Amino acid sequence: MNKSEKYSEIILLGQMLQERKIEHEQHDLYDGYQIIVPLPGQTKEISIIEHAGSYGSVMNLLEIWAEGEIKGFLSAEQTLRIIKNIRGRESPN
Fold it and tell me: Could you tell me which residues are beta bridge partners of residue 28?
């Protein structure tokens, strides 16, 4: 099984972000991937990972770090909801 098949949930999240025109960067990380979603402010971002050491990777699920908190075992849909919720709170009015 290649990397894209093993970690298909983060690939799906990347496609969902692209379809919704949500700014993000995707990089290789260890044996898997990382997606960074920038937020307003110089040092604010959301990090999503899926690799052999991430929470949930054995079940093809994602780990997210945002607002000083780590959550694991998330689907692409759940992760997208979290991203949209945080972006909504962080956007200037």
Answer: 33
Rounded CA-CA distance 91/93 in Å is 6
Q: Which residue has the higher pLDDT, 24 or 4?
A: 24
Sequence letter at residue 79: T
DSSP per residue over 9-46, as a string? Answer: HHHHHHHHHHHTT---EEEEETTEEEEEEE-SSTT-EE
Task: Kindly report the pTM of this predicted structure.
Answer: 0.92
The model's pLDDT over 6-17, given as tens digits with 9 standing for 90+, comes to: 999 999 999 999
Phi, psi angle pair for 35, to nearest 5°: -120, 130
* Cβ proximity of 33 and 24 under 8 Å: no
